[in-house]
Amino acid sequence: MIGLLQSIGYPDWVLNALLLVPVIGMAALLAGVGGRPRTVALVIAVAELAISLPLWFAFNPAAAGMQFAAEFAWIPEWGIHYRVGMDGISLMLVLLTTAILPIALLGSYNYITNRERTFYAMMLLLEAGIIGVFVAMDLFLFFMFWEIMLVPMYFIIGIWGGQRRIYAAIKFFLYTAFGSLLMLVGILYLFFKYRALTGDLSFAYADLLQVPLTFGEQYWLFGAFALAFAIKVPIFPFHTWLPDAHVEAPTPGSVVLAAVLLKMGAYGFLRFLLPFFPHAATHPTIVMTMLVLGLIGIIYAAWVAAVQPDAKKLIAYTSVAHMGFVVLGVFALTVRGLQGAMVVMLSHGLSTGALFLLLGMLYERRHTRLIADFGGLATVAPMFGAAFVFTALASIGLPGTSGFVGEFLALLGTFETHPWVAIIGTTGVIFAAYYMLPMVQRIWFNSLDNPANRDLPDLSRRELAVLAPLIAGMLWLGLYPKPVLERMEPTLSALVRTVEQRSGPALSFEIEIADPIDTPAVEGRAGGGQP
Amino acid sequence: MAEFQPTLLWAIALLPLLGFVVNGIAAFVAPDRKSIPTVVGPATVGMAFLIAAVNFIGMRGADLHGPVIETYWQWIAVGGLRIDAAFQLDNLSMLMTLIITGVGFLIHVFSVGYMREDPGYARYFAYLNLFVFFMLVLVLGSSFPVMFVGWEGVGLCSYLLIGFWFTDRAKADAGKKAFIVNRIGDFGFLVAMFMLYSNAGSLDFVNVFEQAPATFAYGGAAVTAITLFLFLGAVGKSAQIPLYTWLPDAMAGPTPVSALIHAATMVTGGVYLVARAGVLFSLAPISAAVVTGVGALTALFAATIGLAQYDIKKVLAYSTVSQLGYMFIGVGVGAYAAGVFHLMTHAFFKALLFLGSGAVIHAMHEAFHHTHSDRDAQDMRNMGGLRRFMPITWATMWIGTLAIAGVWPFAGFFSKDEIIWQVGAHAVGPFAGWYRTFWVMALAAALMTAFYMTRLMVMTFHGENRSGEKERQHLHEVSPVMWVPLAVLAMLSVVGGWINVPAAIGNAPVLGWLPHSEWLHEWLHPVTEAADGVAAANAAAPLHSAPFGGGEVLWAVLSFGLAVTMIALASAVIGGRRYRPAEESPPPRGFMGVLYNAWYVDGIYDTAIVKPILAVSRGLARFVDTFLIDGIVNGVGQASRAFGWVGSRLQTGQVNSYAFALVAGVLILIALVVLQ
Lengths: 531, 676
Hints:
The complex is a heterodimer.
Chain A: H1 2-7, H2 10-31, H3 37-52, H4 55-58, E1 67-75, E2 80-86, H5 88-107, H6 116-135, H7 139-160, H8 165-198, H9 205-208, H10 215-232, H11 241-248, H12 251-261, H13 263-276, H14 278-282, H15 284-306, H16 311-332, H17 335-366, H18 377-380, H19 382-395, H20 402-417, H21 419-426, H22 428-444, H23 461-479, H24 482-502, H25 520-526
Antiparallel strand pairs in A: 1-2
Helix pairs in contact in A: 2-3, 2-6, 3-5, 3-6, 5-6, 5-12, 5-17, 5-23, 5-24, 6-7, 7-8, 8-10, 8-11, 10-13, 11-12, 11-16, 12-17, 15-16, 15-22, 16-17, 16-20, 16-22, 17-19, 17-20, 17-23, 17-24, 19-22, 19-23, 20-21, 20-23
Chain B: H1 9-29, H2 35-61, E1 68-78, E2 81-89, H3 91-114, H4 121-140, H5 144-162, H6 169-200, H7 205-215, H8 221-237, H9 246-249, H10 255-264, H11 269-276, H12 278-283, H13 285-306, H14 312-332, H15 336-370, H16 391-405, H17 411-425, H18 432-461, H19 469-474, H20 480-495, H21 503-506, H22 519-523, H23 525-538, H24 552-575, H25 590-596, H26 601-642, H27 644-652, H28 655-674
Antiparallel strand pairs in B: 1-2
Helix pairs in contact in B: 1-2, 1-4, 2-3, 2-4, 3-4, 3-10, 3-15, 3-20, 4-5, 5-6, 5-10, 6-8, 8-11, 8-13, 10-15, 11-15, 13-14, 13-18, 14-15, 14-17, 14-18, 15-16, 15-17, 15-20, 16-17, 16-18, 16-20, 17-18, 18-24, 26-27
């Protein structure tokens, strides 16, 4: 398999192809290529998935560094290059993206009825943008993808959304753009500092990673980046764009938003925040602040979710709770915690993606999302009910499903460094049942007393085909997560090592840590010059 | 002796899982074809029992000291943590497997008759098979996390089966309550695992227990905290104070489910957990005292409620809570074999009593159905004199009653007596006073047990019939598919206790007529010896007399006499009372009203915990999220709208160009900065 892939040069062109194919698809759609737009988009998304799947085999699970790297000069005058690469973290998130997209499209095949062509073009642009974020190895390129991805999402909510779509779209855009601007300032600061030190212009990840920063600089830059990512995750109290965006977004938008887009924030933590600003990322006050915000997310969002009358909004809040476990896992700064955070992300992508699809299917049938409008649906649509109940239970971490593996590892990893935080976070398993089961009961169980629900059709074959891979994924990740874990392990161990080494007392330009005995403050400032 | 190799260990668990898959498909594809679940449901569990029996015979003939572990695949491997999907067969898990598949098989057979008319027949057997699978994972798992898979899995099946008739809101509510309350316990289980891993560096039973005496200081904070959190898990699963309130509500499920899940197997999971982690509990005397105390308090408290219930299943539910308390007393004092012994005998006689009540309800329900009456088929005030119509059910249930009441030579006599004896004998050391109190509580609960069970029998089967003239015509004994399991369980309820007759009683005159072996004690010895060793090295040796004097034989005779007295007393008191049908009876008042309403604990929880959480949730959603945070966000939005070009774009409604404008603006900004 690997030999075959290498013989066709797969590792050299795969990432370029993944970025190019959706853009070509988008161009074709906008140019008016024949066929129904949804078919064209689906074909492109499936092709994208087919291109990405061999990554699983071609990826060297023993290596921690970037694989499938590609590079060419883009705006060399400013040190901007097209640089892409993939490590264990990117691999999983890219595969999640390419897998979710066709499912999201097919799962809402009849959902979009107006301006189809534009809609599907936007979905493909979104896919390219997301993949770009996960593989960019140049900070300018990364930022560009980060911003590009905003535009289609903004339109998807603003044009094809529900009644309050304009409010939700603007809120989404303002929140995210605000964060991005701060991040941009941070990136430029790194860029100029690098130029000041070396005289070279570079936005390359590997170059800017070497920029020595004083403690003060680290804290400010950490703040700028952290805010951008925290909004995206989202972390309490920057989460209120999410429920509105989710409720208003059309089903495929919600699915992609929950399954993949939210992962970009946590990805930013792992890719930039921890390795770039290790002092800040390990500072006890900062770590505790992040952990407490994660805890608030877990408990506060669960409580708020429990009383939402709108099922979609309820699930949106549960995303905030799930991401709380991710925050815990990340800032625990242990391999187990990071692995847990990653599995929670993947699991959340599958289970919450599936829940939004299921709610979308329900909405297509009944044109309502209010829990109170339902009740007893399992009597008329048993298969629908079974799929929903299973997904809901996977989402709240039933052992044997993906949710458990993620939460268990994230909390275990957190316990190693912050036992009390982990214990409080574990109460999340109680509150998860508290928000999920009443909703499940009020939709699927109880008596079928609303006449409008009496002829509710069960799942169609298309809908079953869409849900089956997601359910299989939840079971697979829950029962045999080993292949996933072992592909991420070297990357994440290396990340922990990097942070530990670099958060040592001082940083010199070559990362050759000067001398651990030196007083940190003095050395940190002196580190600004050439060694 | 021969080396022991398990035979098809994986198949024991896989067969019921296969049954779940087949019945589950049948439930969707051919819900009316009842022949598939009728065969597949009981057969898969029956075959699992046969394989378990083969293994048991093999184990008896072999010289087995440590557990046999079969690893199937690597489940979670991260850093140094390694959790295998693996089963562990040892004397304890072997015994549990036999109980689960054996009693489980009988209950599956009974269900064929009980659920015959139900439209959800296939779905029922799918859930029931799935339950057996998860229960086997619970007892066979070789590590805490694998056990936890079974632990939450049985909780899931319990949830699905309590709410089996989910269109009835009260039943769906009961299922939900069971799940959420159990999750409080699961929280404890999870935290205990985190603590264990950070202290012992492993979550495998073998590793943890082998190094526990070296890792943990006797009575140290770490092991005390771990065992208390583990016990929180047990309290949830095994319905002990303060988390017992879900179990009485769980009676909403079909009665065979109550027999299997909420009496014989799942609810004993917590007892199994404490017995399994015996080494840890023996290292933590405070935790052990807590286990014993909670057990004693629950045994007594639930028994008082059982005295005043009219719903036949509610009596049995509180009785189960109470009997589980006894099991915790047993494992709490470190008499793990005694606790597990009672677990086993209780599985026999309580499954029998529940199935018997199921037979009664089935008959009552049919009779009421014939006359289109909507009267309560479970209220004992609507029964009475059923002995005439259902002689087999009557006889087998009396055997169960004598067994649970502790009448010699029925099974419960030996198991319960040993527990009461053990708690008395452990009234030494720092908690001696407490243990003496627990002993008195256990004795008092035993007296009440004899009373409320006799009350149940008399109200149901004796005296005048109160079912109604027309209804009476339709009352009849249940079919053989239902009474044969009753007969088998009745037999087990008689002889089940004989496998572990204490030496003292076995050697006594008259009582010694029985085969006096401490067989179960010896059988479990390889599992309990490590814990026994810890206790022997650290704790004071148990006494040879009860707290206020008297030896084992004397107290055995005394408690036998007291049980018989209570039965006679209850027969006289209840038999002399004239009950009126439920619909005509006023609600119980005074102290009996307090007991009837279960000391109002549900109401207290509702007021003190459930409602405040809901109120705070609503407050957070409305005030913090919508008013505070969104208020600020919207305020900022409004402010920015008043200034600059962003606002003008918004106001003209050109939202589409706005997005591009912002990206363009960002790019211009970059250009300006770079070209400065």
